[in-house]
Design goal:
Layout: H1 3-27, H2 38-43, E1 52-53, E2 57-58, H3 60-63, E3 72-75, E4 80-81, H4 83-91, E5 95-98, H5 107-110, E6 115-119, H6 124-136, E7 140-142, H7 148-162, E8 165-169, H8 173-180, E9 188-190, H9 194-204, E10 208-211, H10 213-230, H11 238-244
Parallel strand pairs: 1-3, 2-4, 3-5, 6-7, 6-8, 8-10, 9-10
Length: about 260
């Protein structure tokens, strides 16, 4: 067979094969796969993680900045939420979850609880003194101005979660200490000088020192806070440990320590 006729035969056979393959694909209803739709690709993306509040003391101003359509927020394992912040989250049905302790930054940070400083019913200049005291102490944080009950609640929660201690400035230190000592996790002492405050705090293993700032002045307050923050956490003596056990007839006995 001449080469020209052979080439024509091969071309006809190839064309016939292509025609049959095309006809078979059409009869089975097959078609090339379509590219995925943009909406499907977007739906496959993982949902956004809940926002993280890094503060140790979460106040109303922090949560009020969160999006209104948020349903969950993450906080530190040892975070203290002020009553107003808790109420804001509850009203908007936003749940908060605590991170695992190992995931909350570094181990050194976790081992150094915040030293809280708060002022109650004081003029503006004394509130400014509280801010200066908080800055003078390592891991110092100032609680927002609030009533004595709210401040005591914040101190109690911080003490129960991370062993935090603090300084409460009040023109009525005896009354403030009386209210604070109703909490199981707080041991409050009152003093009028730096030396006796530190001695009483050491003797009673105090977690809170309550003072009238007009008795000490800015320098004395800062020195008291710095030295109090340095005191080592020691176990309670037997008599204080017995006195700290809740009584079954007391309303404070129902207060659970997380």
């Amino acid at each position: 067979m001449p080469s020209t006729e052979l080439e024509q035969l091969v071309a006809r056979i190839a064309a016939d094969v292509v025609r049959r393959l095309t006809a078979g694909a059409a009869s089975h209803g097959t078609s090339p796969p379509a590219a995925p739709a943009a909406a499907s690709m977007q739906a496959a993306e993982p949902p956004a993680a809940a926002p993280m509040l890094a503060e140790k003391v979460v106040v109303l101003a922090s949560v009020a900045k969160l999006p209104r359509d948020l349903r969950e927020v993450t906080v530190r394992h040892d975070a203290v939420l002020t009553p107003s912040a808790r109420e804001w989250l509850t009203d908007r049905r936003i749940t908060f979850r605590r991170m695992a302790q190992a995931a909350t930054s570094a181990a050194a940070e976790a081992g150094s609880p915040a030293f809280l400083v708060a002022a109650c019913d004081l003029p503006g200049r004394c509130v400014a003194q509280a801010a200066a005291v908080a800055r003078a102490v390592p891991h110092g944080q100032q609680l927002p101005a609030a009533g004595i009950a709210s401040l005591v609640d914040a101190f109690a929660e911080a003490a129960s979660r991370s062993g935090s201690r603090g300084l409460l400035l009040s023109p009525r230190p005896a009354a403030a200490a009386l209210i604070a000592n109703r909490k199981r996790t707080i041991r409050a002492v009152v003093a009028t000088g730096v030396r006796d405050a530190l001695q009483l705090a050491q003797e009673c293993r105090a977690t809170l020192v309550v003072v009238d700032p007009s008795r000490l002045g800015p320098g004395g307050l800062q020195r008291l806070a710095v030295e109090f923050a340095k005191q080592l956490h020691q176990p309670l003596p037997a008599d204080l440990a017995a006195a700290s056990r809740p009584c079954s007839c007391s309303s404070t006995a129902q207060e659970a320590t997380p």
